[in-house]
Amino acid sequence: GLFLRSHFGSRGSIGSRVPPPLGHGAPSSPVEDQMADELELGLEEALEGLEEAGLEEEAPAEEEAPAPEEEEDDDDDDVHVEEHLRDSVEGSLRLKRMLSRDTQGPDAKKRKTANGDAAQPIHQAKMKALLVKWGGMTDAVMKHVLEECSLDELNHLINTNYMPNKFDQRKTPGELTRQHLLQLKERELGGGSRIDVVSAFKLRWKLALDAEKVLRALTHKDLRYVINTYDGSQTLEDVVNEASVSVDEDDNTLSAVPTGPGPMVMGRFNRLELIDPLADAAVFGDANLTFCMNLATHRKGFGHVGRVIATTFEEVETLRERYKEIDTSIAFLEEHHAEVYHGVDCTRIALDPRFDGMESRLGAVYYNFPHSGAVQGFFDSHPMVNWRHENLMRLFFRALRHFVKPGGIVKVSSNAGAVGVRYSYIVGSAIENEFLHTETMPFLEWHLHRYGRSYGDKRDVYKRPDAKNNQSYNAQNANSDMVYCFCYSPTGNTLPKQSIRMPPSMQTLINCKDGPFKNMGPGPARENMAKQLHARFLTEVSGTHVG
After folding, report:
1. Helix 140-147 and helix 121-134: axis angle, to 10°?
2. Which residues pair with 282 in a beta bridge?
3. DSSP structure string for 133-154
4. Whether 485 contacts 268, CB under 8 Å
5. Strand partners, 368
6. Residue 405 gets which letter from DSSP?
């Protein structure tokens, strides 16, 4: 799994080139140090006992036991989906089942499904060692964060002596730990800002600086040949030599300006939106449909015959309350031969009968500024709610696999500094679903950037940004808005089940001391708040927008 802020930072992985831990200077008490030392000694003895008993090897087998029950649960969702499309919604249905069966008690079965490591005694022992060392045995958020960690991540936290700053004025220890782990993963993806086609190619294949210099000197024809042909089986030098003698026999847009500077010409292709004129293009999550109108006008001007499929998450009745011009916008799109679908969940399109027969038909897909909705009292980055944003991208790209044709493009716009849908969620989710990251370009350089952006929730009733270069949309710095570009390149291999970030259990919500629970004492009020939040999560994963 993956499955979104400064672009090309240094790259590394857990165990190599580890950055200084956040909050490293936070002191620990002598009592905590003594407890940690004792627990580490006990942990070593426990691990030796586990090895002798063979429990570590048997743990995976224990996880496989509930598998038949999971298969039976698939029938309980009361949904019909073609067998070849089941993989595209399996993660979404699995997430819904886990939330539906959640109770106020510990839900071991849910944790097994979410993270195989979490069921192993060694994982529990390491997690407990960290909680004791950090003095977080009663911290429900920290426990939830560590439960979601892999063994590699737990080992990293232990081996680097990472210590979250308990005195941070803005973020809790659980938030800091989650942020620290995310930053480690993001080092492998590059940053969230501008990446041109050569830099993206270099990052994908982990090429040296000398190779990058060679690529930047190529003409458009040669660079496109190298990017489309190189697969690692030959040396880059051999492929470059092949490109120099190759002849492009196709008379199409891609062969235009063959002798122009490669990086610049290919970047212009992305910015001018020179897409397949015959294939359909789908837009997801366009609340007021202004981007769809922009795209439909663009395609009509180029003489494209492919359809524009404009979708909104909300139903049309809700849209009429928020956007008085919505009916006019729909009429405009229909005049441009576009199809408008309301109530579309982009993570569950395989369950939508309006998408029947559209497998491998989409040549271009757009999703601008994805967001799972704000939860009052929590920042988007908080672990109690951030899992929704990460899963949105993971499930979105898994759903697209069956509807985007090979070679089709996907463009997702987001702010490089967004803490809800982080750039690593976008890029990571795309890569794990075989969508190659081809470029990250500034949003304001995109030919389609001039449209009337909206908040996409009830705020649009009283607060509407205008469409003049998005200057009135001040929720984020417009200069940091980026368009993340991908190309679908399936290998033909069967992918594993889509990994998902697990939601907090009901008991975790009740024990949470952050956000709306911060000043709330124990009792019925706290439990009711947890139930309301849990009910909202279940409603959202069922495909209904809240807010």
Report:
1. 140
2. 309, 365
3. HHT-TT-HHHHHHHHT--HHHH
4. no
5. 413
6. E
CA distance 192 to 371: 17
The residues near 220 (Cβ < 8 Å, ≥ 6 apart) are 257, 258, 259, 260, 261, 262, 265, 266
Give the pLDDT confidence of 212-264 residue by residue, as tens digits: 999 999 999 999 999 999 999 999 999 999 999 988 777 788 888 999 999 99
Say how far apart CA 415 and CA 247 lie, in whole Å.
Answer: 40
Whether 506 and 530 have beta carbons less than 8 Å apart is answered as yes
Structure tokens at 457: 């929730």
Three-state DSSP class for 105?
coil
Instruction: Say if residues 21 and 173 touch (Cβ distance below 8 Å).
Output: no
The enclosing H or E element of 409 equals: strand 404-415
> What is the C-alpha to C-alpha distance for residues 345 and 322, in angstroms, rounded to an integer?
19
**How far are the Cα atoms of 111, 160, 311, 534 from residue 148, in angstroms, in the given order?**
8, 19, 33, 18
**How would residue 545 be classed by pLDDT, with cut points 50, 70 and 90?**
low
CA distance linking residue 382 with residue 442, whole number of Å: 27
Distance CA(468)–CA(365), nearest Å, equals 24
Question: 10 Å Cβ neighbour count for 476?
Answer: 15
> In the predicted model, is pLDDT for residue 349 greater than 60?
yes
Tokens matching residue 265: 């010409």
User: H or E stretch including 114?
Assistant: helix 108-114
In the structure encoding, which two tokens stand for residue 368, read together? 């601008």
Can you tell me the distance from the alpha carbon of 353 to that of 407, in angstroms, rounded to the nearest whole number?
25
**Cα end-to-end span (Å), the chain:** 28
Interhelix angle 30-53/55-64, rounded to 10 degrees, is: 80
**How crowded is residue 352: how many other Cβ atoms within 10 Å of its Cβ?**
16
Q: Which two tokens stand for residue 281?
A: 């293009």
Structure-token pair, residue 289: 């449909």
Are 409 and 486 in contact, with CB atoms under 8 Å apart? yes
Residue 401's pLDDT is: 95
Tokens of 370: 């994805």
Q: Are 394 and 500 in contact (CB under 8 A)?
A: yes
User: Helix 220-229 crosses helix 236-245 at what angle (to 10 degrees)?
Assistant: 130
What distance in Å separates the CA atoms of residue 304 and residue 364, rounded to the nearest whole number?
13
Cα distances (angstroms) measured from residue 501 to each of 278, 384, 388? 37, 11, 8
d(CA 341, CA 284): 10
- Does the structure show a pLDDT above 90 at 210? yes
List all residues 6 or more positions away from 102 whose beta carbon is below 8 Å from its beta carbon.
110, 505, 506, 534
Angle ∠(323,329,333) on CA atoms, nearest 5: 150
75's CB contacts (< 8 A; 6+ apart) are none
Q: Which contacts of 473-480 are long-range, i.e. CB under 8 A and separated by 24 or more positions?
A: 476/415, 476/417, 476/418, 477/415, 477/417, 478/443, 478/444, 479/442, 479/444, 480/5, 480/193, 480/415, 480/416, 480/417
The DSSP bridge pattern shows strands 308-311 and 339-341 to be parallel
